[in-house]
Amino acid sequence: MFLQGAHSGLIQLHESLRSVLGLCAKSSWEMVELMRPYMAVIAEINDTTNKKLAGQLGVEDADSRIGAAEERIPQEVLVRSAQLRLQEVPSLALSGILFSCFCLESYINSLAYFLFKDADFLSLVRNGHKGSADVLLDAIWGMTIRDKWQTIGSLRDGNGFDKGTSPYQDFIILFRFRDERVHDKVTEWVGEETKKRYNNRLPESVLLPVDLGNALFAAETYWNMVHEIHRLIGVPMKEFQRYMVPPWSGDGHRDQLKEVARQYRDAL
Fold first, then answer.
1. Which three-class secondary structure state does DSSP give residue 210?
2. In whole angstroms, what is the distance from residue 20 CA to residue 24 CA?
């Protein structure tokens, strides 16, 4: 992307998101392949655990059965799988979620600059009101991320995003998750498991690790918001940026990533 007399970090953030999704998929697939020979054992462990939680098996009996089942999985497999599911995959997935948020903020800031400085979308510069364009741009840059997208989306007809549907609903969920992770504060555990803040798109509890599927949700939200903002303002993407491609290499690659995410969850 090129702006007249200016620069943006959007491309670097976008490419970082693509790289992180690829690395997360690679680690997720390693987990799938690692656990594939032991899927029957994993199913047995999960069944025993569920019966234990439901009170159908005593704690000691269930733990004994789980321990015996785990002994049928080589120790090095257990160690590596723990590294993947507790460290590598969640860290890469969280990076993908955060990079999606970074891209959303960078994109709307860069698009605002393009519209008011380069494209003169409201004809302010053309009509001798360059100062007004600068003031308006500064005001937008000072808004919250939600207001930035809604304001720019409303420029053409005043309507903007439909707040009751996707992608805007997903956008709100994503940034609610981002805010609660980035602006972390100590909270009580009471009632934590009953909260429904993310519409089953992201883990409700900080004890539940994120995975590739969650990172893909964030990346798709970012890219869907990009498409929707250009539809709303009537400015084709190619007029703003000509070289950016989706965070995946085409629909076929995105489907592959989703399949890896599905198999990863099955392997757990």
1. coil
2. 6
Decide if pLDDT at 124 tops 70. no
Give the pLDDT confidence of 36-52 residue by residue, as tens digits. 999 999 899 999 999 99
Name the pTM for this structure: 0.88
> pLDDT for 198-229, tens place per residue?
888 899 877 789 999 999 999 999 999 999 99
DSSP string of 20-37, one letter each residue: HHHHHHHHHHHHHHHHGG
Cβ-count burial 165-194 (b if 16+ within 10 Å, e if not): eebbbbbbbbbebbeeeeeeeeeeeeeeee
Rg of the chain taking only CA atoms, in angstroms: 23
| 17 within 8 A of 219, measured Cβ to Cβ | yes
Average pLDDT taken over every residue of the chain = 89
Q: Which of 213, 210, 217, 1 is nearest to 101 (CA)?
A: 217
Task: Map residue 145 onto helix, strand or coil.
Answer: helix
How many helices and strands in the chain, by DSSP H and E? 11, 0
Q: What is the DSSP string of 238-251?
A: HHH-SS---SSSHH
What are the residue ranges spanned by the domains of the chain?
10-267
